[in-house]
Automatic annotation (TrEMBL):
Active site (catalytic residues): H472 (proton acceptor)
EC number(s) given by UniProt: 2.3.1.21
Protein name, as recorded: carnitine O-palmitoyltransferase
GO terms, biological process: carnitine metabolic process; fatty acid beta-oxidation; long-chain fatty acid transport
Catalyzed reactions per annotation: (R)-carnitine + hexadecanoyl-CoA = O-hexadecanoyl-(R)-carnitine + CoA
Keywords in alphabetical order: Acyltransferase, Fatty acid metabolism, Lipid metabolism, Membrane, Mitochondrion, Transferase, Transmembrane, Transmembrane helix, Transport
Family: Belongs to the carnitine/choline acetyltransferase family.
Keyword Heme listed: no
TM spans (from-to): 50-74, 103-126
Keyword hit for Membrane: yes
Residues annotated as domain Choline/carnitine acyltransferase: 174-736
InterPro entries the UniProt entry points to: Carn_acyl_trans, CAT-like_dom_sf, Cho/carn_acyl_trans, Cho/carn_acyl_trans_2, CPT_N
Carnitine O-palmitoyltransferase N-terminal domain ranges (all copies): 1-47
Organism, scientific name: Scophthalmus maximus
Amino acid sequence: MAEAHQAVAFQFTVTPEGIDLQLSHQALTEIYLSGVRSWKKRIIRLKNSVITGVYPASPSSWLFVVIAILATMYTRSDPSMGLIAKIQEHLPVSQSMSTQCQAVVSAVLFSTMLWLLLIFTMRLCLKQLLSYHRWMFEQHGKMSTTTKVWVALVRIFSGRKPLLYSYQGSLPNLPVPTVKDTVKRYLESVRPLTDDSQYERMTQLATEFESSLGNRLQWYLKLKALWASNYVSDWWEEYVYLRGRSPLMVNSNYYGMDFLYVTPTPIQAARAGNSIHAFFLYRRKLNREEIKPVSFATTQSPSASQCERIFNTARTPGEETDSVQHWQDSDYIVVYHRGRYFRLRVYQAGRLLSPREIEFQIQRILDDTSPPSKGEAKLGALTAGDRIPWAQARKKHFGSGVNKRSLDCIERAAFFVTLDDDEQGMLGDDPEASLDRYAKSLLHGKCYDRWFDKSFSVVYFKNGKTGINAEHSWADAPVVAHLWEYTLATDCFQLGYNAEGHCKGEVDSSLPRPQKLNWEIAPECEEQISQSLTVAQALADDLDFHVLSFKDFGKGRVKRCRVSPDAFVQMALQLAYYRNRRTFCLTYEASMTRLFREGRTETVRSCTSESSAFVRATHMHQQLYRLAMTGAGIDRHLFCLYVVSKYLGVESPFLKEVLSEPWRLSTSQTPVQQVELFDMVNHPEYISCGGGFGPVADDGYGVSYYVLGDSMINFHISCKHSCPDTDAHKFGAEIRKALHDLIQLLSPSHREPSKVGESRHEFKKDL
């Protein structure tokens, strides 16, 4: 109960001699320093809001404009062409102000208006410049004169050091493609998947839609595009993610892995201490907007709006639709270990705990032998099962009292942490099988030892390995990957460990112990937990997963064949799928639309008529990817037209059929975004294995791939055991064979090199 007493700032008792008041100086100091920290954050946010609000100008430029106007006035010239005099005439001032003082005030007001007009003009010019996307369609390494001029102008209008959110007000809105273009591209995408009669039928449906209902629905979309920042994103978040009633686990959440070849320390608590500290360093940089915006073509930065909800965010279940809740910065995390939930404060007296102090607190949790409360151990299964039972249980059993307080604590935490008793990574005599187990553990764990509603959860295994599991509705994988890259690099290269494997620094042994959360779980709620666990366990058992680490060659050799690495991999996946299933299928590849305000993703339909001619197909694939990134994709436009038709209560046979087509091959690439944080030449062993997700269709595959340096490509392949036509390991073998066949096709005279593993450094494997 020591921590409870420390939380009380004062105590008083009534005695015959009067009131005995006792102050806790430690608690008062804590309150004071917390207040100071809070005000510092408010001041920083206010300062950044001003800087971002006047971008691409700077606050100091206002003073420059004022001085310039005043200087011209003293040279007896009027740059305002009479406007300063007009302002002076209508200036509501007291009679005591001199004429000269009135003139100065009028000049300052005119200067301010001129400054704001210049900001508006510069922002409008920058917005028009950022609407230029022809650079994406130019041949790699050959920049046109127009693009060179564009790059120069963007650099001039962008200023020197933009903050993370500086570009947001200048990004163009996502354009609405014409119905004619979208329908044309859709028909081209389904041609290789249909026979002549099916294609003729779809063409007829498309023509009828384009000439009638399509134009009506398009009018509403254009109206929304004029009013909203992005005509897709809010509907995409609500209808694709938040209204889904099936389990988040496997179906929606995704994961990221630790370093493939090394484990910085085998001490579980130490690994947690360093990386938790690194997460909060990232959050500090995020709050101060000090994170460098990711740029394309050396100038253009994507939308950073998704970064706002990385921390202190949770998905809240509802019976019809879920919601995403975001709170102000929390000074604690919630840790799960052996069926217990602990609240761990990471700030003490207004300062962030050092890695060594966090390790000390984590070790306290690991050493705690208290049993879980009745019904507490498998409580997390509610977040792993179907959404409606969880929403009903939350409303009935977690709406008040101790359960509500504990649930609020979890949902408002900065993020969620699991201390897992298992060991994971490349282990034993069969490293491939151990990687598969590692992937499944990160994706679903034991189905109750993760909190799948949190924006992200971090898992620390007994042998020091770690990983991340993220909820999908609030942001897409590149946002979480950026956070994960920073954390891994800071953990190893900035913070480091001492010779014994512990975090560096000293420990304040007076730190209050982590606080165990209390629960009062009713028998009826326990029954619902059991039912949700049954649903989740069946889903986890049905998941077939395989991690393929392909080291025979990488993007370096592919580029020497003058082919896009992404297009090369996609064509290999097409070939592998055809060999595996003896047919082609509708293929989904995620492409970002973050070149536009509040942009998220668009679909690249990788299976095309050109897929049979691989060299031509790679060019076609790049073209489709660029169209998707520049707002000329197919699926988001058709999706929004479908949503409008539902609002209007009208049926479209064409849209109904389009939206019901299954994605039997769902793919995604997550590129390395912060290459400067890793030294892949001198330390190639410090590379992440990437991450993955579950299959979208019950009879299909989910494939995530991660291109690392010039000599490695990691694939994360998922499918379901219940489908007799899918097998993750067989598909992995087909991918490996297809990669070799394609590289031989593109460079037939090039001798197949020996495996990279035979010529590169011997990496230290986990034992």
